[in-house]
Amino acid sequence: MGLWGQNLRDLGASSYPMEVRDQNLTLQGVADILGVHYVTVYRYVTNGQLLATKVGGLWQVTRHDLDEFISSAAERKNRRHGLPDARRTGNYVVELERCLSNGDSAGAWMVLRRSMNAGASVEHVILEIVVPVMSTIGTRWANGEIDIAVEHQASAIMSKLIGRLSEQATRAGRHRGSVLIGGPTGERHALVLAMLSCLLSLQGWDVLDLGPDTPASAFVHAAQRMDRLVAVGVSVTSTESFPEVGATLSVLREKIGHDVPVILGGGAIQDAEHARKLGADHFAVGSRGFIDFLDGLTKESA
After folding, report:
1. 3, 96, 95: which is closest to 41 by C-alpha?
2. Domain's final residue, options 80, 109, 125
3. pLDDT value at position 140?
4. Residues 235 and 140 placed together within one structural domain of the fold
5. At a CB cut-off of 8 Å and minimum separation 6, what does 126 contact?
6. Quick one: which of 65, 61, 51, 67 has its CA closest to 11?
7. How far apart are CA 119 and CA 226, in angstroms?
């Protein structure tokens, strides 16, 4: 029996066999320690419960992250049995906003990691923690409560952390098709695209994120070379981008035809009618709206 069969409150690095205390672990190594099947550990990784990093194409887990996972599992077990939970914080949104405002990248990552170790999925972390925090910071800047340097600092930190979360954004099984996303010429906000890319990957889509400030010709070039292209998403956060949006959508429609829908989203798009006037087939309200639209497409084609 592995360590998983013991009392989780008593587990820690000292419980590891001597030969694994000073090295990173493969998923099979973690499975052996926990006494579970490899597929179970893989599921922990893909749903964000256990942090892992791909090295040379193979997942590896640090001893520290395994300790965190075991500790969090023990806390959840204690809560189910009504035992006191002294380490529980819960308000990750407040903690993350404070870390980002203070430029504390390491602290921000620890907040996200603690939330996942406590059972939150990567999708939940992005939609329920990161998005509200970044929205609050953006509002505070717009209201003159914080300097734009703080907003830029928070966005820069979060962009790096989304990259780390994206390492967890894998889904087993057959991929559902390809999706192209980007921002038109003049757009500067990459974070919203990075979050959308991560969320779509979790849903089983192959995603090509062209990033912001992408000319129409680049959209067309990428779209024409993508296998099983299902949709193109264009993010618009600034009203100054409207002329480029119209030009981009017009060229896309001319080159890729009408079989592949073009979706507009972002804070600068008012509603579905506004999106249609700019040349889009659909308006997505946030990342969830984009995902729901794609789900609808696949159901129609099934």
Report:
1. 3
2. 80
3. 93
4. no
5. 162, 165, 195, 198, 199, 287
6. 67
7. 35
Residue 269, pLDDT above cutoff 90: yes
Place of tokens 């000073």: 22
Bridge partner residues of 229 (DSSP): 178
The answer to whether residues 39 and 47 touch, using CB atoms and an 8 Å cutoff, is no
Question: What's the structural domain count of the chain?
Answer: 3
Beta carbons of 100 and 60 less than 8 angstroms apart: no
Residue 225 neighbours by CB under 8 Å, 6+ apart: none
Residues 132 and 96 in one domain: yes
Contacts of 102 (CB under 8 A, 6+ apart): none
- Cβ–Cβ under 8 Å, residues 3 and 35: yes
**275 phi/psi in degrees, rounded to 5:** -65, -40
CATH of the domain at 221: 3.40.50.280
Residues 36 and 145 in one domain: no
Which residue is it, tokens 């070379």? 225
What residues have CB less than 8 Å from 143, skipping those under 6 apart? Answer: none
Closest CA to 102 of 137, 67, 51: 137
Beta pairing class for 206-209 and 58-61: unpaired
User: What single-letter DSSP state applies at residue 207?
Assistant: E
Neighbours of 225 (CB within 10 A): 10
CA distance 5 to 14: 16
67: pLDDT confidence band, cut at 50, 70 and 90?
Answer: confident
Domain final residue pick, 115, 134, 166: 166
pLDDT above 90 for 51: no
